[in-house]
Specification:
Order of helices and strands: EEEEEEEEEEE
Largest sheet: 7 strands, mixed
Shape: globular
Helix content: under 10%
């Protein structure tokens, strides 16, 4: 059985940082495309950042420079580092993985076969 479990969300003030974690079991994240998505209030779920098995990464242009994805292969855990957070970053953040080795930000979300349950990030003063 494959599970992805996010953690690290919570309240944070504008300008602050958070690091989200996504621990996987039953699935080797290093061998597949992995990604973070978010769903902001009243908006559709959108891609944030993804990482292919060859370690290439892609980040949403609007978030480039503030958000970054990484993978600890020894821990089989992926991370999303979020810096200089803004109120519009408030969302439920999801981790996901594809069967394919590769990812880009433009692939349909239904190509991601495993998903975490999400973790809430609230940016507010």
């Amino acid at each position: 059985q494959v599970t992805l479990v996010e953690s690290g969300g919570g309240p944070v003030q504008p300008g602050g940082s958070l690091r989200l974690s996504c621990a996987a079991s039953g699935w080797d994240l290093a061998r597949h495309g992995i990604a973070w998505f978010r769903e902001r209030p009243g908006k559709m779920r959108e891609p944030v950042s993804c990482r292919s098995g060859d370690m290439s990464t892609y980040t949403n242009d609007k978030l480039e420079g503030r958000f970054s994805i990484s993978l600890d292969t020894a821990e089989n855990t992926m991370y999303l580092q979020m810096d200089r957070l803004e109120p519009q970053d408030t969302a439920v953040y999801y981790c996901a993985s594809r069967q394919s080795f590769y990812c880009t930000l433009w692939q349909p979300q239904n190509t991601y076969i495993y998903w975490g349950n999400g973790t809430q990030v609230t940016v507010s003063s």
